[in-house]
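pinned: reference chain
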Amino acid sequence: MFGESRFILVVAVSAIYSVVSATVATSVFLTTVALGYRISLFGIVAYAVVIGSDIVIMYFSSRRLLYMFSSLVANRPAVQVQEPGQEQGEPHEALPLGEREQILVDAIRRNGGSALQNSLVEVTGMSSPTVSRIISSLENKGIVEKKRHGMTNIISLTGSRKK
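pinned: its structure tokens
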């Protein structure tokens, strides 16, 4: 949990930094113009680069923060896992999932029970190797199935976990 809250803090600080940076750059640019100074082409390009990078940072930071907070607010239940040899519908214990495993399961569930692996990378904001490692773990636990689909995989929840 400590690692996840530290990650949230880093993303929040990045978002705040980009807002402050864009505000300062715009203030300097407008003040320079208002005072009647001529701005060189280099100055205009530098301003555009700063604003452009700030917009990209704001977009991805806010998107990631919204996803993380919605996952926290959703009060996720434990995923039910069927033991080998156990009949369908028979009571079984809930297998606790790690936070990142639960994030992936929730993302697949929101997509109707299956999703392309590369789209899970985009939606969750996790790196491709991290998503791959978590999918392998979920596959070993019997929670998801992986099927090859061109250059990526289709990841599907197994059985009753689609609900």
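why pinned: Residues 83 and 92 are 7 Å apart (CA to CA). The mean pLDDT is 80.
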